[in-house]
Specification:
Length: 465
């Protein structure tokens, strides 16, 4: 059977005949009315879960209670302290060739922190351990500072109690007291008077100067023209802040005493203290004045106040508590200075109330002059003078705090309260008028009541109008 190959046949294209489209009529569909449903008032907004509907499941969060003291914390701290003390003793006494009480306490503190952190990590998470460790460091630092202050006060009081327990120490001078005189002779009243006068004059000079300089640095530094003058003043203030006290004393000695011919006195010592206190007051006051809100000053300017009235009535009253702190810092800088007072005021055992003439003693000079003597009574007087200086400084600081505390709304007298007080005072000073008789008042009332009412106008007259 033979196979013949298939020959391909060419495809003949067939023409497409267009078919006409038959238009179909559109049939209108009747609209079915749907009743409008009022929206529910309590329907939640989109994206918000309804109160009753189940919301997304959030992972459970564990609350961490910061602060407070628990039993576990106390026991952990006691165990860490005991274990670190034993380990420190073993290292100092048996292993390492160390000695000295300061090194022993320092190593004990470091071992305590490490042991406390490791013991806490076994029972708390990392965040709680860091929080408890920071609390331990803060409390231990505060207790350390408090212990140092108590140690200093106790040491000075113990050494000076032999002289401070006698009344004559606060009422007499050292004019008639010899090195071998009994402890019941002599006192420090001349040094107390000198310190108060010198510190008072220095505060009177330095506080206005420092506050004005701070206001200048803040107000003038805000303008382009004033910024050129602010920069050298700021550099000078920063340089004077680190000025040694002996340099201030030498400056006043060379300029005021040797050049101008003034004598050594309390006034010259107050000038030296002013040089020391002014930069301290300026730096502290500048920070306080800069913290006054700008909206207060803008409101004052909007009411038509000038710049100096804004500073005097808005800026300074607002910064009053901070300015008091600046004054306290300045007084703390100048009350204990010895070298500038020694160069400018000298030393004397007499009582001198005049700060302009004659040498004048102060408590720092009193302490420095008698603590170096080899007599136990004189050393006791020096330590009693140090105790007196602490008491004077405490009184000055408390007074400054009381005077500079912020005034509340109850402390500020209002215009109505002033008017009420003025009226009450005038009424108390004016003699009381005789009361009118009751019969006259009654008759007046009855007369007003018995007065006949006006007859109504006739209606005809109204119609004619």
């Amino acid at each position: 059977m033979s196979t013949q190959p298939l020959e391909p046949r060419p495809l003949e294209p067939q023409p497409l005949e267009p078919q006409p489209l038959e238009p179909r009529p559109l049939e209108p569909r009747p609209l079915e009315p749907r009743p409008l449903e009022p929206p529910a008032l309590d329907a939640p907004a989109p994206g918000i879960t309804a109160p009753g509907a189940p919301g997304p499941v959030l992972p459970e969060q564990r609350r961490i209670k910061l602060g407070g003291t628990t039993r576990e914390e106390v026991l952990t701290m006691l165990g860490a302290g005991t274990g670190s003390l034993a380990l420190d003793w073993l290292l100092y006494e048996r292993v390492l060739p160390f000695s000295g009480a300061f090194g022993f306490l320092l190593c004990w503190y470091a071992l305590f922190l490490g042991t406390y952190a490791l013991a806490g990590r076994l029972q708390w998470d990392a965040l709680t351990v860091r929080e408890r460790l920071a609390t331990a460091v803060a409390w231990s630092s505060g207790l350390l500072l408090f212990a140092v202050i108590l140690e200093q006060l106790g040491f000075v009081a113990l050494r000076g109690l032999n002289a401070a327990r006698h009344v004559n120490f606060f009422t007499e001078t050292m004019r008639t007291t010899a090195p071998l005189s009994p402890i019941t002779s002599g006192g420090c009243v001349h040094a107390v008077v000198g310190s108060l006068e010198q510190l008072g004059l220095a505060t009177l000079f330095s506080v206005p100067l420092g506050v004005l300089t701070a206001v200048f640095l803040v107000e003038a530094g805000a303008t382009r023209r004033g910024a050129r003058l602010v920069k050298p003043v700021r550099v000078l203030v920063e340089a004077m802040t680190a000025l040694p006290s002996i340099v201030a004393g030498l400056f006043v000695l060379g300029v005021v005493i040797l050049t101008l011919g003034a004598e050594k006195s309390g006034f010259a010592a107050s000038l030296a203290l002013t040089v020391m206190m002014t930069p301290i007051v300026t730096r502290a006051a500048e920070v306080v004045v800069r913290l006054v809100p700008g909206t207060l000053k803008e409101a004052s300017y909007a009411l038509g106040a000038s710049q100096w009235r804004t500073v005097w009535h808005v800026v300074l009253p607002t910064a009053r508590p901070g300015l008091t702190t600046a004054v306290v810092l300045g007084m703390a800088r100048g009350v204990g200075e010895t070298s500038p007072v020694l160069l400018t005021a000298g030393f004397t055992t007499r009582l001198n109330f005049d700060p302009l003439h004659g040498n004048q003693a102060s408590l720092p000079l009193f302490i420095w002059n008698y603590v170096k003597q080899p007599y136990p009574e004189m050393v006791a007087r020096a330590f009693a003078g140090g105790l007196t200086l602490m008491f004077v400084v405490l009184v000055l600081f408390v007074t400054a705090r009381v005077l500079g505390r912020p005034r509340t709304a109850a402390d500020r007298p209002t215009r109505r309260s002033r008017g009420t007080a003025r009226t009450a005072a005038a009424g108390a000073a004016r003699p009381s008028a005789a009361p009118r008789p009751a019969l006259a008042r009654t008759a007046t009332v009855h007369t007003a009541t018995a007065r006949p009412a006006a007859a109504p106008r006739p209606a005809l007259a109204v119609e004619n109008r």
